[in-house]
Amino acid sequence: MTADAAPAGAGPVGGALPAARTRPLPAGAARLEPSGLLGRWQERNAAATVPHCLGALETSGALDNLRRLLDPADPEHHDGPYRGFNFADSDVHKTLEAVAWESARSGAPRHEDEVRRVVGLLRRVQAPSGYLDSHVLGGAAASAEPYADLRWGHELYVLGHLVQAGVARARATGRDDLLDVATAWADDVVSRLDEGEELVCGHPEVESAFVELYRETGDPAYREAARRMLDLRGYGRLGSGPFEPAYHQDATPVRAADEVAGHAVRQLYLLAGVVDLYLETGEDALLAAAARQWDDAHGRRTHVTGGMGSRHKDESFGDPFELPPDRAYAESCAGVASVLWDWRMLLATGEARYADSLEHALLNVVAAATSTDGTAFFYSNPLQVRTGHDGADEYQASGRRGWFACACCPPNLARLVASLHTMVASRDADDGALAVHLYADADLEDGDGSRVRIRTGYPWDGDVVLTADAPSPVPLALRLPGWADAARTRLEVDGAAVDVAAVLDARGYLRVGAGARRVRLSLPMEPRALAAHPHVDAVRGCVALARGPLVHCLEQVDHGVALEDVTLDLAAGLEVGPADDVLGVGATLVGSGRATSSAGVPLYRAVDGAVEGDAPVAPVDLQVRAVPYAVWGNRGEGPMRVWVPAAASARPGDRGRSGR
Amino acid sequence: MTADAAPAGAGPVGGALPAARTRPLPAGAARLEPSGLLGRWQERNAAATVPHCLGALETSGALDNLRRLLDPADPEHHDGPYRGFNFADSDVHKTLEAVAWESARSGAPRHEDEVRRVVGLLRRVQAPSGYLDSHVLGGAAASAEPYADLRWGHELYVLGHLVQAGVARARATGRDDLLDVATAWADDVVSRLDEGEELVCGHPEVESAFVELYRETGDPAYREAARRMLDLRGYGRLGSGPFEPAYHQDATPVRAADEVAGHAVRQLYLLAGVVDLYLETGEDALLAAAARQWDDAHGRRTHVTGGMGSRHKDESFGDPFELPPDRAYAESCAGVASVLWDWRMLLATGEARYADSLEHALLNVVAAATSTDGTAFFYSNPLQVRTGHDGADEYQASGRRGWFACACCPPNLARLVASLHTMVASRDADDGALAVHLYADADLEDGDGSRVRIRTGYPWDGDVVLTADAPSPVPLALRLPGWADAARTRLEVDGAAVDVAAVLDARGYLRVGAGARRVRLSLPMEPRALAAHPHVDAVRGCVALARGPLVHCLEQVDHGVALEDVTLDLAAGLEVGPADDVLGVGATLVGSGRATSSAGVPLYRAVDGAVEGDAPVAPVDLQVRAVPYAVWGNRGEGPMRVWVPAAASARPGDRGRSGR
Asked: pLDDT digits over A221-248, tens only?
């Protein structure tokens, strides 16, 4: 290890991060309490999701694919055929990473016997070169030669996840066994790159992983390998047909890209890697390109739930403003990847908008991907399910499923949630301020041995109280969420009201000087109706209901008439409804609406003066109930919609500084 | 041949059709004149599209795939690898069918030397069993065994198109050479079915073809084979994963189906076959199922252009009312197939709504698929192209292309257009009335040796004049289009006005008794604004502009501001605009609108009382120009939209009996 290496016990994105404007807290400096939403989520992840993933590695065949390499002829080693997609090994690696972060979080190795068995298995089947992809080694690929199919082979993708698992285990437990397996393979890739092999993976992931490997080992060869792989990309080396180069982010060099394009998860992982390299090198062109693409993604191609990837076909970002609620792909992995990208953008810039986006994706699309019991998952996350929906396709299922033919999402969710506590706060590089990004019941170290406790009912309640054991030796920086109007936000420091506008910095944080003992932030939590940019044709005339960071949705189970027949009366206002213990949410939303039967209305009809014709029958007034999108689909399967047609009779009027 | 066999020279769906309510005219009884739209289309098809397809059979490798079978080692026979999808043979067969109908239309064999060379080639490479699929015979398939992969192999699909080509050539030219090749293969399939082999093709098509083969040969074994293949379907015999049985219409038995489902072209070909069998057997359950599915398709799953198939993913019908304009798949082949289905429904029932639908699909989605010069094609037919559209994918190209990796559409369009004249009119089974379905300059035989001439400027003009050489010996039945208000339609028989309501029959036709010499039908041609059913969320607040049977669209080239910023002022009315000689259309539409810049509007914003916020800048008034959808994309590539946001300020009010 060199002086640059990450300290033992760091979380993801560990290390000195020379170009960062704000840096992750040291190991163990942040803990989420189970009294709050995020802490409970981590507990559920530990108790249910991680064990569920470990079990699925057996039932899905992912571990058998590796065991078979021990001796294909021995039935004890499962000589059935290779099972799953050619990147099934990554399910193993992501689960190992989740276990590692969970060990770090809980302060003790978890599932250690199982992990050691898997690590032992990996070590035994690893080729002498270090190569370790069971799809190729097991003869299931078209070629037995490694890297024969860079476009579809996913080998470097699998390596990337193995590296991240090894790094996580080393940081969490101090054990290098898995890291050694990963570096043996990584070293072979570095050698090949050094010898001029043009290794570009059809599915980006390894770029970010190699930067992490550099951070963990201090060996700049990995950083340079990541740079080389990014430099090689964007010139069509991966070929085309049936997928175009843009699908693999191979149409435009990374520094020249202005827009997100192609397969959403691939694009988002790549961008995380681009910012990872920036954090180590400070090369402005990398951050500038990532920022341009972030503006494009968040200004033109993100669903109101934070979901990304509009198209089922090719799992891709679509055209600008192509954001269909019913056919939103919004893969759970894209939600995870967007959080990873946001976190790196936040570290690189210290700007609140990246934390806003991180929180928004986390509490909406990412949260919705998992059932309330932690053992069932959505692959894609639509914003509407219609009456009559055919949910046979696992990519647009009517309900969550325990596992998938392509099982990328569940362990990806598990590894993210197990490391959530590392994203609550960071330390600003310039003045050492403790910057708080996520409001949740948490205990933070303030950098001087004393602690800051955060207590809040957020996101159900807008009051956030920070209490320091001793006068804080560093300034505090509290994120003012983009949806919160500064004029209606209150801040109190040690009992004295503070002018919010006066302490709001250019990055979007409320700055509190060193020495404070008790800070109370009160965010405005009135329900909001959100409209989309007029170019989002798919939701014209509709609103999405939100409160604080949470987007809400209507579920059929709460309404006695078909959801498709409901129109919201915006002028009647929105109220905060009671908590729902079944769903585990602290509040719901209630509004007024009307139901108009569309029975007998032809598919197309001529209209004279306006689009809305006279209703064929008198509308029926009804109460509309909206629940957080994060918990939809937990009371049986049925229609749901985030975007609700709003009555045209109400008066116009915009408000607020941001839509979300 | 038996007494039931089709008369020499018949068109598609030839033969006695015992269960038909109305029957195709005899061979040569209908001719389209090049003075009219449909006649010109046929001329262009003959002069440009058919030769283009013949040429593409060479350049695409489709003919080489067959030649290679002569002697794979001989370079003269092209020993390169198989090219194209595994059903590339069907491109050859569909082109041969197009040439045949074109020969029938023009009254003389066309491209006869080329056709004989191809027929000779097919005969030489045909296996002794009759089997003739070059993908399997050439060793390009995973198994050399025929029918080893019924789900994906497309072998019976290829056979179906070969049969239809052979039937068409026999009817058009009296030559049985190609029919003999087809029957040799078909006979082997019949034997296999008789021996209990469960032959169900993943891509329906052969069912309709076998009924045609029965009609042409009189041999009931083919009809029974078609019945058997329909009976076998719907029980999951084709297996599942990655596609579900519904994709292949194998989830529900054909007589039990209530909804269209799965891959749209597959579904539509299957339904054509179902009705073909009904026309021969009169089995009510077949027609009842087809009618239920037709109501579902046309009531919940058809774009306003007549396009079918909402999803790019799986090329499938989506959920009810899932009709996105930008991502409409609306494959050209689905348009062709829906016309084939409509024609059979019309023959089975005599009901005008099926002719309405046939004409609507023909003049909108099918017409749009081909460029005005006849040599470039759309694979999918979106109803919107956005600013910034990525048109690299041939399935959502920014412009028409000369050929495709999957080249099903161009020869499919060619074969349909070459036989259009056979759909202009039919003879009713009950009273022998000459029922006129398509208004176009045409000459028809009235069944007694004398002729009826139709002359009209339709679809640009609503006046249609029928003139008989002698007093018509049979009644006439004139379709009253669904979009035409009977109260504003005028009918004049031999100079005397007739009360339209009094002569409108239950099937939707205006009945004129025998003996008439001159009939003038005047249809109301005012522009119409169409709104969609309120469950079609994707076009809420928008209208589509139509006149007569033509749906129109806005093209960027006609507007100085971004199409996405344009709102139509419905209250200001719509006018008929001048003809456009470049596009070859007799009229356009003109309306008033306003353009509102959306610069600076966030992707999502909070609104207080209504969805439409105050415009950030004052809107600019502008003239809106709409051109027929059939000719969009012929003046360079650029944004286009069928559905246009309509100003909310206008007053409500429905009108008309039907939307289209």
From this structure: 999 999 999 999 999 999 987 788 999 9
Looking at the complex, does the CB of residue A324 fall below 8 Å from at least one CB of chain B? yes
Q: Which of B541, B609, B653 sits opposite A650 (nearest CB)?
A: B609
- A531: closest CA among B594, B614, B383, B640? B614
pLDDT of B266 reads: 98
As a whole number of angstroms, the distance between CA B455 and CA A27 comes to 86
Round to whole Å and give the CA distance between A351 and A295: 13
Radius of gyration of chain A from its Cα atoms, rounded to whole angstroms: 25
In the numeric block, the tokens 């306006």 are attached to A610
Residue A602 contacts B where some CB pair is shorter than 8 Å:
yes
- CA–CA separation, A493 vs A351, rounded Å? 23
Average pLDDT over residues B242-269: 95
The residues, ordered by sequence, that sit 6+ positions from A587 with a Cβ below 8 Å of its Cβ are A460, A547, A576, A577, A578, A579
Pairing of strands A434-436, A476-479: parallel
A600 in contact with chain B, both atoms CB, cutoff 8 A: no
First to last CA, chain A: 44
- Triad A545, A547, A551: Cα angle to 5°: 50
CA dist., res. A154 & res. A258, Å (int) = 26
pLDDT for A230 equals 98
CA distance B398 to B389: 7
In SS3 terms, A451-464 reads as EEEEEECCCCCCEE
Nearest chain B residue to A599, by CA: B533
The answer to pTM > 0.80 is yes
Q: What is the token pair recorded at B409?
A: 């559409």
Identify the bridge partners of residue B511 per DSSP, sorted by sequence position: B477
List of residues 6+ apart from B1 with CB closer than 8 A: B217, B218
Q: What count of other Cβ atoms lies within 10 Å of the Cβ of residue A614? A: 7
* Chain position carrying tokens 């440009």: B48
Query: Does residue B179 sit at the A interface (CB-CB below 8 Å)?
Result: no
d(CA A383, CA B73): 57
Residues ≥6 apart with Cβ < 8 Å to B533 = A598, A601, A602, A603, A604, A605, B321
- Residue A612 confidence (pLDDT) above 90: no
E strands within A37-151? none
Phi/psi of residue A538, nearest 5 degrees: -65, -20
What is the dihedral sign for C-alpha A111, A117, A120, A125? Answer: negative
Classify A160 as helix, strand or coil.
Answer: helix
